[in-house]
Structure formats: structure tokens, C-alpha cells
Amino acid sequence: MRPENLLARALPLALSTVLVALLPGTVVAVGLDTAVDTQAPTRPGRPSCSDIGEVGLTLRWGAATDNVGVTAYDLNEHGNKFVEVPGSSTSKVLTGLAPNTTYDLTVIARDAAGNTSPASPVADCTTKPSSDTTSPTEPGTLSAAGVTANTVDLTWGASTDDRAVTAYHIRSGSAVYRTVTGATTSTLTSLACDSPYTLDVVARDAAGNVSEPSNSVTFTTKACTTGGGVPSSVATLSSGWTIPWGTYWMPDGKTALVTERDDFRVRKVAKDGTKTQVGTVPNAVTTNGEGGLLGVAVDPKWETNHYVYFMHTASEGNRVVRMTYDGSRLSDYKVLLQGIKKNRYHDGGRLLFGPDGYLYVSTGEAQTPDLAQDKNSLNGKILRTTTDGKPAPGNPFGNYVYSLGHRNPQGLAFDRDGRLWEAEFGNNSKDELNLIKPGADYGWPTCEGTCSVAGMTNPKATWNVSEASPSGIAIVRNVVYMASLRGERLWRIPINGNAESVGTPTAYYVGTYGRLRTVTKVPGADQLWLSTTNCDNNGNEPDGSDKVFRIQLK
Questions:
Q1: Closest among 526, 548, 369, 537 to 472, alpha carbons compared
Q2: Nearest-5° angle of CA 439, CA 445, CA 447?
Q3: C-alpha closest to that of 111 among 67, 69, 63, 74
Q4: Which pLDDT value is given to residue 35?
Q5: CA distances to 80, 341, 521 from 530, in Å
Q6: What pLDDT is attached to residue 424?
Q7: Torsion angle (degrees, nearest 10) of CA 320, 326, 330, 331
Q8: How far apart are CA 379 and CA 349, in angstroms?
Q9: How far is CA 272 from CA 23, 247, 265, in A?
Q10: How far apart are CA 475 and CA 419, in angstroms?
Q11: What is the mean pLDDT of residues 474-492?
């Protein structure tokens, strides 16, 4: 057979082709129109764990299929990617795990075009307790220098261990401000200005054994130089909650509605903290993860129509619904928007009315990253709807979508200039604070944090996921306050006047109150309400342990 015929058989023609002469008597077909692969792989089979040891295990799963081919599997722990393996593999030996720890493991398949499957079912696997019971020695003398309004330089002496020191924790009491590996110095940043600190350092080994603390150092950061007020006094406003999630003030500013995620209850809370149950939301279910009864919003015209809105997980997915609230009880459940996919994690859920009178809805990508880039999907988006559940006029794509490329957004707030800000969970690298613009693409899953990909909009601020994992945000006096779950702190981020940028973030209450879910401005006062969700699967506190705090700004 002639060589050109072999080549022609080896190269399938696309929809349109042109013949290009390479050598006399030889031609090849070059495609002008290349078919785009948009078909995602199938869902991988249920994972299982074997060979479980103190610091490792073997994870196996059923193979996914794809019209072209599976090129990789992403392995996720609690919804966050931590390793990938080739598409030819259906097992992975995981090492470097912590002893006596439960890992929530799922698998997502990818093809060469970047299409991703839905997440597999979950495998909960617990490593064995460690046989190493020897703690590292106490770290050497800790010293502090170079104190500014927001930073301090720390140095300490090295610890020793019978096996190895894996990390140092810089602490205030039991709250960890920073984890340091491979060094005995650190510049601690994001401190609150004009605030006293007492810090020590402990060493940790791979088994989780912790040393005795070093000596303590005490200092006070320099005076505040930024305007907009700073958090001062904190008081417990209300206790006895179980995963309070959404908070929204009534138009008269006297009471707020607060949802509880896993019990589907709605309570009204007065400014003095008195709480009264006004009903439950029908058809709500949990996902044993992040789904359930999530956000709440009150119609700007509530005094005439008595409408309130909820986002919740249902049997088929996540919904936006409308109910009637007469000031005492809920009634008249009506579905406004369905078709938002659900999963154990990444369900979004925040609701907020804008100054334009339309309802803004944050949705997660339901552990299916490709949905975030699909303009025809409701997932991984900020949606904008009318109060009847229709796409709001002027939406950039003529449907519900207002912005796209989001992973798991849970914070929404408008600033004094009517601009929409959003806080969003990252995967295993960076959490984000974004300034939302209609039609903009915020990058996920192509980008996490700042990147240089054309067409993607970069965040205004980012954090390591261990320091944030943000949920609700509020804006008071042109300052963003961001509640953080894993980071267990309240971030203060000043907006630079009317500019599209922010100043240096600073952290308050690090580790003091646990996992912080929702922060809300109190009408008519320089105050915030701040709620915890320490009763969730990551906090593991008993039901009824959560609280709502009142914070005074000075």
C-alpha cells in the first residue's frame, strides 16, 4: 500500500478538511473543524478501603467510562481534591494520613477535554490508632520582635522526637494561629490592630502527639490606622441552636429569621436574643454533608405581600421556594426554581435581595466541576431571579445565570455603591473574595485563586483554605466581614473607597468560638450578628451547642 494511503487511513477526517502537499505525490488531510468533546465520563463506582494502617490505606473504586477515554481520577476528601491518578488506575495507596482519623473519600473522573463526572458515592474510612505514644520535646525559647499593627516576627528553638517532628503550631490558648513546617521562625500576619496577644508554640509528630508548650510571649499590636470601625466587645445573644445557617432581617429591623440546616426549623429572633419557632420548611432533606435548609430572604415588599424565600435540598435536588410569613407562622409553600443539582457537598445556598429588587442565589457545583462552566446549568453560579421564580430581566445570558465559574459560594453582600461581593470555598489551595459582575467567569475549575487565563476574572483577595473556608459575609461602613468555618475566625477586609480593590485582611477571634457560619449587619447599629455551626459533621459538638453572638464595632 502506498505510504500516503496508510497516512490517510490513520488520520480520520473532520467535518471539513483541506489537502496539504508535503512532498511531491504525497498529501495529508488537515481538519479545519474539530469536533468538540462535551460528554462527561460516567460516575465512578463506589469506593472501598483496604489495607488500612496507622498512616495509610488503599482506596479502590469502580471504573468510569467515557466516549473518548478517562484520562484521570481526582480523589477528594470532604469534597476537596488532594491527589489525582491516571485514568488507567482504579486504586491508589494513600500515605501520610493521620492515625485514628476518619477520611470522607470520593472519586471524580476526567477526560482529555476536561469534562468531569459526578462524584462517586462516599467511602468513610478510619485509620488505625498510632502505636507511637511519645511526644516531641518542648520547643526552645520563644521570642517576639518587630511588632506592627498587624504582624509580629516569632522565633523559637527546635524540638526533638523519637521519630520526627512534623510541624509546629503557633497558638493562643488552644487556638492555632499558624502551622509551620521545616522552620523555627515565622512572621505572623493578619493580626488585629491595637489588640493584646499571648502566644506559645507546640511541636507535633506524625502520630498526632503534641509537646508541652514553649514559654509564652505577650505583646500588643500597634494602633489601628484604618477607618470603618473594628470589632470590639462580644456578647452571647442566643444559645441552644443546632447548625443555624441563614439569617435575614425583617424590613422593620426588629426581628430576623434564622434557619437551622438539619432540622429544617425557622425561628424569629428579636434584638434581645429572644427566639420563637415560626415553622418548618416542607420537603427539605439533608445530604449528610452540606445540604439541608440553607438560606433565607425576606421580600422587600413583605409588609404588603408577606413573602419569604428559602433555599433547601429536596429529594430531586436543591430548590428555591417561597412561603408566606404573617409575623407568627409560615404557610403556603410554593416551588419557584428547581433543577439545581445537589450532592453531599458543594450545595451553595445563600439568598439575598439586591437594590434592584431581584433575588440573588448562590449555587455550588454539586461536586461536578464542569457544571460551573456550563452557562445552561444552574450549578456553580450566582443566579438572579424575579420574586415569581423567572429569570430577572437583563441577565447576561438570557437565563437565570448572573455569573459563572463558582465552586461553592456561600457569602453574598452588597456594598454602599450597590456592588455585589461574594465569598467562595476553594478546593485545596485558595479561598476567594470576589467582586461579582454580570456575565463574568470566576474561573472554577480552570482556576483556583488568582490565575492568568484569558477570560477568567481574578478574586480581590485569597486565603489558604486552612485559614478561611468562608461562608457568610456582611458589609458595614465599607468593610467586608467574612465568617470562616475551618479557619474558625472572622476576617475583616476593608474596601478601598470606591475602587475595585481591598486592603489588608485581618483576623479576629481565631479559634475562640469554633466554626463561624453566618455574619449579618444589625439594622440601625454598628453591630454584627455572628453564628456558629459547631454541631455539624466537622465540628462534632452535641445538638444545641451552637450560638449567635452580637459584636459591637467601634
A1: 548
A2: 80
A3: 69
A4: 77
A5: 26, 29, 9
A6: 98
A7: -80
A8: 11
A9: 87, 15, 20
A10: 11
A11: 97
Of the candidates 242, 226, 329, the one whose C-alpha atom is nearest the C-alpha of residue 286 is 242
Amino acid letter for position 142: L
Rounded to whole angstroms, the Cα distance separating 251 from 351 reads 16
β-bridge partners, 167: 204
**Chain segment 86-131, per-residue pLDDT in tens:** 999 999 999 999 999 999 999 999 999 989 999 999 999 999 999 9
Residue/partner pairs of 389-397 with CB below 8 Å, 24 or more apart: 389/320, 389/322, 389/335, 389/336, 389/337, 392/356, 392/358, 392/359, 394/438, 395/438, 396/438, 396/439, 397/439
**DSSP β-bridge partners for residue 408:** none
Residue 187 has pLDDT above 70, yes or no: yes
- What's the DSSP call for residue 522? P
pLDDT of residue 23: 39
Q: Which residues contact residue 212 at a Cβ distance below 8 angstroms, ignoring those fewer than 6 apart?
A: 135, 138, 202
- Which parts of 194-351 fold into alpha helices (H)? 302-305
Give the tens place of pLDDT for each residue, 134-168: 999 999 999 999 999 999 999 999 999 999 999 99
Strand, coil or helix: what is 206?
Answer: coil
Residue 424: other Cβ atoms inside 10 A: 28
Q: Are 261 and 531 in contact (CB under 8 A)?
A: no
The alpha-carbon radius of gyration of the chain (Å, integer) is: 26
pLDDT > 70 fraction of the chain, expressed in percent and rounded: 94
Q: Report the chain's terminal Cα–Cα distance, integer Å.
A: 86
Question: Which candidate, 42, 44, 41, 40, places its Cα nearest to that of 120?
Answer: 44
Per-residue pLDDT of 415-432, as tens digits, reads 999 999 999 999 989 999
Local structure of 305: helix, strand or coil:
helix
Exposure string over 219-233, b if 16+ CB within 10 A, otherwise e: eebeebeeebbbbee
* Average pLDDT of the segment spanning 278-289: 97
For 369-378, letters b (16+ CB in 10 Å) and e give: bbbbbbeebb
Q: How far apart are CA 133 and CA 126, in angstroms?
A: 19
Q: What is the pLDDT of residue 343?
A: 95
| pLDDT of 30 above 60 | no
CB 133 within 8 A of CB 178: no
Q: 1 falls in which pLDDT band (50, 70, 90)?
A: very low
Contact assessment for residue 115 and residue 122, using Cβ atoms and an 8 Å cutoff: no
Grid cell for residue 507 = 483576623
Return left, alpha or beta for 467; rule: phi > 0 is left, psi -120 to 50 is alpha, else beta.
Answer: alpha
How far is Cα 358 from Cα 438, in angstroms, rounded to an integer?
A: 14
Question: Is residue 34 very low, low, confident or very high in pLDDT (cuts 50, 70, 90)?
Answer: low
